[in-house]
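hey so i finally got around to running the thing on that chain from the lab meeting. sorry it took forever, my laptop kept dying and i had to restart like 3 times. anyway pasting the input first so we r on the same page abt which one it is
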Amino acid sequence: MATRKPISLVKAEDTQAQTWPDEPSRFVEDYVDPFILWCVKQGASDISIQSDRPVYNEIHGVLYPGTFRKIDAADMAVFLSKIYGPEAQARLASGRDLDVSYEIRPDRYSRIRFRVNITAILSKGRDAAQITMRVLPSEPPTLKDLSIEREVIDSWAPRQGIVIITGPTGSGKSTLLAAGNRMLLERPKGCGKMLTYEAPIEYTYDTINSPRSLVSQSEIPRHLPDFASGVRNALRRKPEIILVGESRDKETINAAIEAAQTGHAVYTTTHTMGVASTVQRMISVYDMEEREERAIALMESLRLIVTQALVPREGGGRIGVREWMKFPDEVREKLMDMSFTKWPNEIQRMINQYGRSMERSAEIVYEEGKIDRIHYLYLASSTGS
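ok and heres what got predicted. didnt touch it at all, straight out
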């Protein structure tokens, strides 16, 4: 197919503003991986492929066109089939968005992995699609890489109980969990059998040296229909550690609590902001008549909640700012001695004794000159702390 000289679509001398020099007049599957690899080499952290628009690369938070030509319906069909499979369009038509992982192997020794979301959209009065691809590191970071506080690290590995990582979409929850998994795997005695249930699988642990650990990763819904089914599956496989990608319905929360109560360490995430609001949200999924019973079961199992937000760092990049609270025996007993309706206020009162509020964490990084005042004020008011 004919190629052309790269053309800048923005007023800049930066090579990031150049489109793919090998762009064809029509995409076929053989062109998809080379094009995506070129985007990665340009420094893209995210790649957006949308009907009736050029492909865009996000580089350091700025969008740059990656193609000169707009993606038409035939091109989009090729991308969907290559990245997800021939059933992609039918599944989008059923009203579902699609989460999947994608992998490219440039050679026999290396691979590049992506987290992919595919969503149906309306474009020019007709059904269309947007594919968002996030580039994943080749291996999980360490907790030290993420500058995780020592108090959080020390509370990360309970023998049994639930650890919850919370925050909005794009706040680094999966990355933080993966870093925690790496720490568990790299302990001198390993961590035994670890089972993860994710949608999609973002990080793999093939390169982590852990001769005394066994990791098994399942993708929802590719391998099992939902997270609750994953936890029930785990209980039949005798693991020490269970990772549940997200707990957003009572079936999954019930299964996670059951796993924790039967001697397992359970790690999961929610899309909540703040320790108190996380507890409140997890209780609120239950009907009124069962809330008190399930609230007690949840509190008996809780060991640690960490809320993370990512905000721009002064000088470039982003920084994780965290609120967290440990739930040792004395905290759980004190809370269970009062009505669960009073827990949010009591947690807010206790948080700086058994953890750190988002307001205090934001104050620390602001005083260190790592974030500006606008983001400090935003974080200080974000969790009600």
